[in-house]
Structure formats: structure tokens, C-alpha cells
Amino acid sequence: MKKLLFFGIxxxxxxxxxxxxxxxxxxxxxKETVDVSSDAGGNESxxxxxxxxxxxxxxxxxxxxxxxxxxxxxDELAGLGFDxxxxxxxxxxNFEAVGEALSAGTxxxxxxxxxxxxxxDDGAEVILTATRAGLSNDADNPIDWNKNEPTxxxxxxxTSYRAILVAGPSEKGKALAAKVNNGEELTFEDLNxxx
Length: 195
Hints:
By secondary structure, the protein is of the alpha/beta class. Helices cover 38% and strands 18% of the residues.
């Protein structure tokens, strides 16, 4: 799985750099971005490439898992005509920090979810999208989730997330769950005073 992730990211970055060519030295707003120049061997020379990940898991875990990506990217990009001096991979303090860094031009590539892109699409361009494997239970009906059957990954790809409200073991929580499990719809009044 890690090799597949590294290959996917390497491929994505290679496409980005090929698509951008020499024109990525400055944007129209004069934001500093990747500094690209040609060397004597014909390869484009990139001093530094910055990649930002959102903190979708523990930042130290992301940094550790992506450390081998630096070497893989340098090798792959060299084969595509780009000599990269330094690759800096960081994890934002939150999702918005990576979006802001893309908008400000302080991060060259950001791996962000769609929600973050929507907030910062003025400073970011999509170059690659990804989907993820769905779950065996993808029902709109809460009763299907309450059957307590195991939910397992599938090979079917999904483009959305499910949001689930979970009722706790309090008296009010049990009453809400009972109403749902009886096939009744919850109303605003049902949820208005729930903590």
C-alpha cells in the first residue's frame, strides 16, 4: 500500500512539473513558487520543491511515512528531465493552513481534501484527484447502520463521505435510537435540546 501511495504521489508530481515547464518561476501575482532553470545537461533545475500534507493523521506518522518519497521523487523527476535540489515535506497545523500556504504561494503542492480546496480554490489548481474504496454499508437508512453488522472495505470506489450521528446510552439517546429503529424520522424538536 505504501509503495502504491509513493508511486501515485511521484506520478502526480511528475505530471505537475511537466505541465508547468519554465513558467512556474513566478505567478501573475508575483508569488514566489518553484524556482526552475536549465542546466548544461538539458535538465531543468529546481532548487526546492515544497509539499504540504493536511494533518489527516498524526503529523509525525505522515512525515515518517513520506520520508522515502523524497528520494523516489528526485529519481523519478530526474528521469523526466528535472533535477530537484531539495524536497521539503511538511504537515500543516490544520487543513486550512495547507490551503492558505497554497494560496500564498509558500507551498508548491498540497495534498488536500475537496472541502479545503473549495475554500482556497483561488490560489490552487487541481492537477490530480483521488477516490477511495467504499464500505460494504453505504445506506441512507440509519436502520441499516444499526443492525450492527460488520462494515468492511470494498473495491467499489466512492467520491463522498457518510456523516453519522451517534446516539449515546443516555435516556434521551436511547429514545432517539428507538425512534429511528422504528422507522420514524427525527424532527428538529427531537434534536433541539440534545447535548
